[in-house]
Specification:
This protein is mainly beta. It is built from seven helices and 30 strands. Strands 6, 7, 8, 9, 12 and 14 form a six-stranded mixed beta sheet that branches. Strand 6 and strand 7 form a beta hairpin. The N terminus is likely disordered.
């Protein structure tokens, strides 16, 4: 089943929140903030002016901001194809970057479950000199995720949350001491995210980057100000990155005597999940685990370096039976393999999806498959697997039963554009389900603010509006 496709989707994405799912009580109130200063070098004062959204038109201010962020937009792409023909892919990627320009909007919990006004991009986030008790950041205007978590000495690190979800909400007498932030997906391929904190004693920290911590740990101090900025990937950052965290010892994953270790900032041994950028590890007494491990009710696999693998097909193959688990709220599908009598607890793969308000919740068994399916009078999908009644797992949308007739917006805005109830996947992912999940496969659809055993996938590279084929489709010669 298909939703009426919104063709003004690019304009929609300039104003709508990149929500991770549907209705949830885990969002801070959304409203426009006081400023819009994407990528512009940080001002010496906090006054900002808002740039009005103009749909797909790139404003002069946005172009200047991109240039200031280290992105050359004044020239055609220098890379040329054969015979001196301009590299169309590079040009298209450059235009797409201008049309997908991040906007970060943040609110903080100020006490008694109240939330602050929204702050946008590089504005100092403050609470009249008082501490913060929760954090929520929206990412708009660009494809991808912003993830963040907070630390207090009494509770440790909160779970990672994303795209407007709230971090753990603390009592009025518990203040946030440290913060970590990172991007994933296309936005992460284009931009580095930097952030700094100001403590209640007036100390301003150096800038942290891409998932490292800023603030303090175990000192009795806490954060009263927070600021973010993003710069073109790997471009020079002109502000100090020295000493972003005050702690007894460096916090996080590090090399100690030639071996990977995780040490808490307070000097204690660490057991739990840890991240280096978007790579995920699990440590026991500060040492990384390797091989197969039972953690939190699932069976994970870690390579010889300790890095968790989130695609286990190279390790265990693709022979079923499988169980398909779909988190409607977070638009995430996880395919599980069976671990003997323990049941389906091995997460083999995860896929980004688009669901819709009418997507049914419950447990079903797949009764039929279709190589191509006319979904709604000339809107076609491929690799369709029926779940129940008119609800199917299928690819993104085509105008004909032909892999060269893709609607590119359904690729770029997967998880943002809703279906009318079906489970939409990239064509390559839909084919994987079609090929490897036999008829009778159990499909469970549920709601949860936690994507699943793996983090929510993201679109890594957007495609030009004019592109009529899905780069994940194995039947298309790229």
């Amino acid at each position: 089943m298909m939703r009426k496709l919104t063709y003004g989707l690019a304009a929609f994405c300039l104003t709508a929140v990149l929500v991770s799912g549907h209705a949830s009580n885990a969002w801070a109130d959304e409203a426009r903030g006081p400023g819009f200063k994407n990528g512009i070098p940080i001002s010496q004062n906090d006054s900002q002016t808002e740039t009005k959204d103009q749909g797909s038109k790139v404003t002069e201010e946005a172009e200047n901001a991109l240039a200031n962020a280290g992105i050359d937009i004044g020239k055609e792409a220098e890379g040329n194809g054969e015979d001196g023909v301009e590299d169309a892919a590079a040009k298209a990627a450059q235009e797409a970057l201008k049309a997908n320009f991040p906007r970060l909007q943040t609110t903080v919990m100020t006490g008694d479950s109240n939330w602050s006004q929204p702050f946008v991009n590089d504005a100092w986030i403050t609470n009249n000199g008082e501490g913060f008790h929760g954090l929520s950041t929206f990412l708009t205007n660009i494809v991808g995720n912003v993830l963040y978590r907070t630390y207090t000495s009494s509770t440790g690190w909160s779970p990672w949350v994303l795209n407007g979800q709230q971090t753990t909400n603390y009592a009025n007498d518990v203040n946030i001491e440290a913060i970590q932030m990172r991007f994933s997906g296309y936005v992460n391929n284009q931009f580095d995210i930097y952030y700094t904190a100001k403590l209640e004693d007036g100390t301003t920290m150096g800038w942290a980057k891409n998932g490292t911590a800023t603030g303090t740990m175990g000192t009795g101090h806490y954060i009263t100000g927070f600021r973010m900025a993003f710069y073109a990937k790997n471009s020079a950052f002109p502000y100090s990155t020295e000493k972003p965290l005050i702690s007894a010892v460096p916090d996080g994953i590090q090399q100690v005597d030639g071996a990977l270790r995780y040490v808490n900032g307070d000097g204690s041994a660490f057991t739990g999940w840890a991240w280096s950028g978007n790579e995920r590890y699990y440590f026991v007494d500060s040492n990384p685990v390797t091989g197969w491990q039972y953690i939190d009710g699932f069976k994970y696999y870690f390579d010889e370096t300790g890095r968790m693998l989130n695609d286990l097909e190279p390790v265990m193959g693709a022979k079923g039976p499988f169980l398909i688990s779909i988190n409607k709220q977070m638009n995430t599908m996880t395919v599980f393999a069976k671990d003997g009598e323990r049941g389906f607890i091995i997460p083999v793969k995860s896929f980004l999806t688009s669901t819709g308000p009418d997507t049914p919740l419950g447990t079903f068994q797949t009764p039929a498959k279709y190589r191509w399916r006319d979904m709604n009078h000339g809107i076609f999908t491929q690799y369709a697997t029926r779940i129940w009644k008119g609800f199917l797992i299928h690819s993104i949308l085509y105008s004909k039963p032909n892999g060269m007739t893709l609607d590119s917006s359904t690729y770029n805005y997967l998880s943002i554009a809703e279906s009318a109830g079906c489970i939409r996947l990239l064509s390559g992912d839909a084919k994987w389900v079609y090929d490897h999940c036999a008829l009778g496969t159990t499909v469970t659809i549920y709601n949860s603010p936690v994507p699943g055993p793996y983090e929510r996938p993201a679109i890594e590279q957007i495609i030009p509006e004019s592109q009529t084929w899905d780069p994940t489709d194995p039947n298309i010669a790229h």
